[in-house]
Every structure is written in structure tokens, then in C-alpha cells.
Design goal:
Helix 1 crosses helix 6 and helix 7 crosses helix 10. This protein has ten helices and 14 strands. The termini are far apart. The mean pLDDT is 95. The strands form four sheets. It has a six-stranded parallel β-sheet with strand order 3-2-1-4-5-6, sandwiched between helices. Strand 5, helix 5 and strand 6 form a beta-alpha-beta unit. It is α/β, with parallel strands linked by helices and 305 residues long.
């Protein structure tokens, strides 16, 4: 049994806490920027209010903690990494939960401090073990209300309903169908709930490699939209993009100084560059459950809408 600190109280953090509570005997705390929310109190979880700008208080909060799982980003996460090192925490999982860090370009408009966190963890690597949990695209991007409705990915710029790839409610899709080599673009997708189960399972591994990959389903981008069309029962209005036309769309958004549209286009460019695609989900063979398939999740998510 170990003591785990989960940084954040959003949707993914709560899923992780749920599986720590129901599937392990590990002790855990949730680190919150504010006083515990009533729904967290009702679950009888230990929640500690912390100031991410105060590394001394963070160090105190991490006293006796073996592993930190972060769902926060930016400077607060950097401060948390420093505090984890100073508190002699053994393991740290930064807030990646997306594509492979090795595929991230420099500079990256979608970074949100992830590269800096990776560099800081590399600096501490002799004392603080870390891994990046790679899951591809979260199913919850296609949830009614988007990821934001579940308090996931807040502040990333592409967390609202319809921000990424398709607008299920209005039957529209923007598809980067082929990459620069003329190959069909594919992505890996995983539900946030399954990501949490994978993460909790990984706590039992004796060593953490640089990346731990998981996947609910690997599909071509076009098949993602076709699955949605089948569930919706009608064809979507589809716009197909090439790498060149995506760059044109980005240039136009930049000329208009339309930052939200720039982020949406950057996400499609990242998709076309295979940043969310991989064929070796290392964690899948280590767990005792079958991840939810995308079509099953999408049908259930939109039932009754």
C-alpha cells in the first residue's frame, strides 16, 4: 500500500480517485486550489486545499506521499514537481494524457507548459521517477458540452462541444483525411474513465518507463466520423483537409487574430501529423479489463439528447 496524491479535482482527477478508492487499498489525497466541493465531501475522500504558488506548503502537503498524479498544467505543475522533489516523492506522472510527447514539435501552440514540465522531470530523473501516460484523444471531446462539461481539459482551448474534428449535435465534421505522405490519418482514442483505470493499474508496476501507452480503440479519422453518422442515423456535412489546406486555414485564422480558431486548426494539424496515433499500447496487455469501444461510448453519451 502506498500514499498517492492526485493534483486537481476535475473530471479526470475524480475518475482516478474513484478507482483508487474502489480497486486498490492505497491511501490517497486530492489536492485542490479551493475548499473541498460538496460532492467530494459526500464521497468521503480526503481533499487538501493547497496554494500552488507556495512551494513550501506544497512540500508539506506531499509529506509521506509515494506517487503524484498531476491533472494540472502550467506553472502550478512546475511548482508541484519542485515540491515533489523536495519532499522526496518517488514517482510523478505529469498531466500529459494525450499524444506521445516525442511527437510534439518545438514550438507547440498546444503545449500549455508540458515541455517545461518534461524538462524539469528530466532534470530530477535520478531522484524522481516519472512517466507520460499516453492515451491519444479522449472520447470526452465528443461528449455533449464537450470535455469542459466534465471539467476536463479546461483552458486548453479545444474543450467545448464541437471544437475538435466533429460537431455531433449539428452533424458537421472537419476531416484531415490524408497526411503529407498520402496515408490515411488514424488516431487512438480512450475514454477518460478507462484512462483512470489504466493509470491506477500502473501504480503496481515495479518500474515506470518514459511512456506508458493505452488505447480504447484505434481508428481512421474518417471512421470516427462514420461511426458518429451511423449513431446519428444521417450523413454529416464534411469538410476534407490536406496538410496544405490546414496551413492555409491556420494562416487565415492568424490574419484574423482568431485565437480559438487557431487552436482548433492546430489540433487538426497535430492529428494529421500522427501525434495522436500509435500501434503499441503497452498498458493494454497489463490490465484485467477491456476498454470501452468508441461507438458504444458515443451512443451512451448521447442517449436521450
Amino acid at each position: 500500500m502506498i500514499r498517492v496524491a492526485v493534483a486537481g479535482t476535475g473530471g479526470l482527477a475524480q475518475y482516478i480517485a474513484h478507482y483508487l478508492d474502489t480497486e486498490t487499498s492505497h491511501q490517497f489525497i486530492l489536492l485542490s486550489r479551493s475548499k473541498p466541493k460538496p460532492q467530494l465531501r459526500a464521497k468521503d475522500w480526503q481533499v487538501m486545499a493547497v496554494d500552488y504558488g507556495d512551494t513550501q506548503s506544497l512540500r508539506f502537503a506531499l509529506t509521506g506521499v509515494d506517487t503524484v498524479i498531476s491533472t494540472i498544467s502550467g506553472q502550478p505543475q512546475i511548482n508541484l514537481i519542485d515540491a515533489a522533489y523536495n519532499a522526496r516523492v518517488r514517482r510523478f506522472a505529469p498531466a500529459e494524457f494525450e499524444g506521445r510527447p516525442s511527437m510534439r514539435p518545438v514550438p507547440d501552440a498546444l503545449d500549455r507548459g508540458k515541455s517545461e514540465a518534461s524538462q524539469r522531470l528530466h532534470y530530477y530523473r535520478q531522484y524522481l521517477e516519472s512517466t507520460s501516460f499516453v492515451c491519444g484523444i479522449l472520447y470526452e471531446r465528443f461528449h455533449p458540452g464537450g470535455m469542459a462539461s466534465l471539467a476536463i481539459g479546461l483552458g486548453c482551448g479545444v474543450s467545448e462541444e464541437g471544437d475538435y474534428l466533429m460537431d455531433f449535435r449539428n452533424s458537421r465534421a472537419q476531416i484531415p483525411h490524408y497526411n503529407a505522405a498520402g496515408q490515411i490519418v488514424s488516431i487512438c482514442l480512450t475514454s477518460a474513465r478507462d484512462v483512470a483505470r489504466f493509470v491506477v493499474t500502473a501504480l503496481n508496476l515495479p518500474r515506470w518507463p518514459a511512456e506508458l501507452r493505452m488505447c480504447g480503440e484505434r481508428m481512421s479519422v474518417y471512421d470516427v466520423v462514420r461511426t458518429a453518422e451511423h449513431i446519428q442515423g444521417q450523413h454529416f456535412e464534411k469538410a476534407f483537409y490536406t496538410p496544405a489546406s490546414l496551413q492555409d486555414a491556420l494562416t487565415y485564422a492568424q490574419a484574423l487574430q482568431d485565437w480559438p480558431q487557431q487552436l482548433r486548426i492546430q489540433s487538426l494539424i497535430a492529428t494529421a501529423e500522427s501525434r495522436y496515433d500509435f500501434i503499441d499500447p503497452t498498458l493494454n496487455g497489463m490490465v484485467g479489463f477491456v476498454p470501452t469501444r468508441f461507438g458504444d461510448w458515443l451512443r451512451q453519451a448521447w442517449a436521450g439528447q
